[in-house]
Amino acid sequence: MNEYSQAKGAPYRRVSEGNRLNIISSNPVEWNVEEVCNWFASQPRLADLAPFIKMHCLDGHILLNYVSNTVLRDELGITAFGQRVRLLEALEALKWKSSIDRHGK
Q1: DSSP 3-state of 72
Q2: Alpha helices in 1-105 (DSSP H)
Q3: Count: domains in the chain
Q4: Which residues contact 21 (CB under 8 A, 6 or more apart)?
Q5: Which residue numbers delimit the SAM domain (predicted)?
Q6: Burial of residue 21 (number of CB atoms within 10 Å: 0-12, 13-18, 19+)
Q7: For residue 23, what are the domain limits?
Q8: pLDDT level of residue 7 (50, 70, 90 thresholds)
Q9: Are 76 and 56 spatial neighbours (Cβ–Cβ below 8 Å)?
Q10: How far is CA 94 from CA 46, 70, 99, in A?
Q11: What is the pTM of this model?
């Protein structure tokens, strides 16, 4: 079975350990906190930030619309500049990819 599969009209599903399915919407803005944490966990250089995301209840809407360098530093307490840059670059890539997926290439 592929890591990702999609039933007709259903969101993508990611198969995790133990054959448990985590539903991941194809639109990151619609992700709940758990889905955002799953995405962070799947990003090698961001996986250690997943607890911050969960602790601050960041869903996809908040993550993609309100997270900035200042928010990461002052509100979430992520003081390492390099870590903030990596996170912001990953968010921009995610926004770009989801825009392409929704509007075609």
Answers
A1: helix
A2: 33-42, 50-55, 60-66, 69-70, 81-103
A3: 1
A4: 13, 14, 15
A5: 31-97
A6: exposed
A7: 4-103
A8: very low
A9: yes
A10: 13, 20, 8
A11: 0.72
CA nearest to 56, candidates 45, 80, 40, 42: 40
Q: Is the dihedral of CA 49, 62, 6, 13 positive or negative?
A: positive
What's the DSSP call for residue 13? E
Give the torsion sign (CA, 84, 85, 91, 94): negative
**Virtual torsion, Cα 26, 63, 39, 8, nearest 10 deg:** -10
The distance of Cα 1 from the centroid of its chain, to the nearest Å, equals 23
CA distance linking residue 101 with residue 36, whole number of Å: 18
| Digit-coded pLDDT (tens) for 25-70 | 789 999 999 999 999 999 999 999 999 899 999 999 999 999 999 9
- Least Cα distance to 90 among 58, 26, 42 occurs for 42
CATH number, position 16: 1.10.150.50
